Amino acid sequence: MFSSQLISKLQRAESVTVFTGAGISAESGVPTFRGTDGIWKKFRPEELANFDAFIRNPELVWEWYKHRKQIVASIQPNAGHTALAEMERRFPQFAIITQNIDNLHRRAGSKNIYELHGNVERNYCIGCGKNFTDAEIMSMDKVPRCTSCGDLVRPDVVWFGEQLPVEQWEKSVSAAERAEVFFSIGTSAVVYPAASLPLTAKKAGAYIIEINIERTELSPWADEVLLGRSGDILPNILKLCRSNRLSAHN
Ligand SMILES: [Zn+2]
Fold first, then answer.
1. What pTM value is reported for the model?
2. CB under 5 Å of ion ligand 1: residues
3. Cα–Cα distance, 151 to 86 (Å, whole number)
């Protein structure tokens, strides 16, 4: 199933970086929130996931995020997430850079994760930055307010028109640059600047493996394109790591 080059690259690699997008979450049943369920059908995500909409109508935006939080809480990491969590223990350096906000990598057991678009299970005050858990949010009014300064509390996700979190971005670039093997998984690789990460890794000499259900703009640049579901392919990659690498790094 895998090329001998892929096998030998994985055998020797000290540093592996994984870049994930919506595809791996979709396999767990996370909807794209485009043209789907109920009353949210009449809104495009761009109309709700932005700061101006939040200031104009925090109740509406919060209602949408509470709906999303409930969906995320009700789904589970899949075999792809689980395989990545075990792969982390088999390489001296291993990082996951994700564009997903659903926290599924952490719930699967991954530790070294850079979240480029935030995490829907976290919330913070726009006035003083204080953090609030989902349990605290759910016990507050429809529009949650900071218990310290009284300002609005928002979900800790990157909205349309907002910058990526600087520290997470810089760590992601470093992880791309130091990777000997770089996986791009379930991402269409078109949303910049995040989409530049596989090319950053490639320029720095990494072996690029793309896993996706269809070819993307990255495919011509990848050293290996594996078409299919990450939940089917990653467990086989993990098997390869188990049989080829002498010891797990625990
Ligand atoms: Zn505050």
1. 0.93
2. 125, 127-128, 130, 146, 148-149, 151
3. 41
